[in-house]
Amino acid sequence: MTLAFDVDGTVYTAELLETEAPESVAALRNLLPLESDLLHVRWSGYATWVNIDGHELPELPRENHTVYPSRGDVLLYPGYRNDQEILIACGPTCFKSPAGEIAGNHVATLDASRAELVALEEATLESGAQPITIRER
């Protein structure tokens, strides 16, 4: 299954990691289509995030979880100690919050170049929130 991440008219795709994180992938799919704002992270480094605190997620286990996502990794964080969110790592990232380091469930990886991810992160840093729609492709 492939997702499309449409950020202000630029579309990135990502294959869902259904074998590695089946419950988290199912929970993410239940949120779709998701229209929101893509924001620059406050604590984690070179990354962006979508707040999904207003959505009901089932209780999810830690599966395929990481504190240090690789460039392009998409994490679903179900709010164990902080806001629920979707994080997209665009460069060196240590997933953090005011509660300290947190681990998100790695559910997909964007098919995007390093330059594209740098541009995505810089757009949220320099211009603020970017409109995003996440949907099944």
Written account of the structure:
It contains 2 helices and 11 strands, in the order E-E-H-E-E-E-E-E-E-E-E-H-E. The protein is of the alpha+beta class. It has a single domain, classed as Cyclophilin, CATH 2.40.100.20. Strands 1-2-10-6-7-4-3-11 form an 8-stranded antiparallel barrel. It has a two-stranded antiparallel sheet with strand order 8-9. A hairpin with a 2-residue loop joins strand 8 and strand 9. The longest helix is centred in the last third of the chain and has 14 residues. The chain is globular, with a radius of gyration of 13 Å.
Brief sketch in words of this structure:
It is built from 2 helices and 11 strands.
Helix-residue proportion: 10-25%
Helix and strand pattern: EEHEEEEEEEEHE
Poorly predicted spans: none
Number of helices, where a helix is a run of at least 4 consecutive DSSP H or I residues: 2
Highlighted features:
alpha+beta; 137 residues; 11 strands; two-stranded antiparallel ribbon; Cyclophilin; 8-stranded antiparallel beta barrel
What's the helix and strand layout?
Blueprint: E1 2-7, E2 10-16, H1 22-31, E3 34-40, E4 45-51, E5 65-66, E6 73-77, E7 85-93, E8 96-97, E9 100-101, E10 104-110, H2 114-127, E11 130-136
